[in-house]
Amino acid sequence: MKNEEAMKTEDLVSWCKSYLANFRSAQLRPNPNLGQTHPTEWQPPEFGGIKINFDVAVRQGTSAFSVACVARNHEGRCLAWKVKRCNGKLQPVEGEALAALQAVLLAKANRWADISLEGDCLPVIKALCAGSGETLHYGAIIEECLFLSQNFSSCKFSFVKWEGNHLAHKLAHLPCSDTLEGFELPVNLVRIITLKLKL
User: Is residue 43 part of a domain?
Assistant: First the structure.
């Protein structure tokens, strides 16, 4: 009787060890990507590359919005910027897609070869990275961006939080009746960039 009880105890310990091992193996593996956070600061492109940030400003109380984009090199120097006012009521995500298209068109007009498009609208960036907008109501805009992006030797898409897209955001909110553009930033925005680069 004592021997039988001893065997049962040993079996129980063995069963517990086996159960614990099975339980541990069934748990979700740690995903290193879960701990990653999206960047909150603007980062320059690699040497020779050009990063174009884009954003949209929906004019509250009106049927108009503005799309803006700004291109900078690896030193953070502005190469070109553009703001365009458009008429119509759109959802913000549709406006963001149009801003991305404006950025691609800016790169094409300047014949840049190595570009990186960066915005703060995650659905738009995900669609561009996935290489398809077929299932989206703004999919035609995404598809046009992707079609035009084939003209570049390199075209990347990246997401940055609003703080890192500050310059494009400020440009989109400039008073604009039609189109504003240039190679040098407005003076009040140059100060913002200078301060950011010093930090």
Answer: no
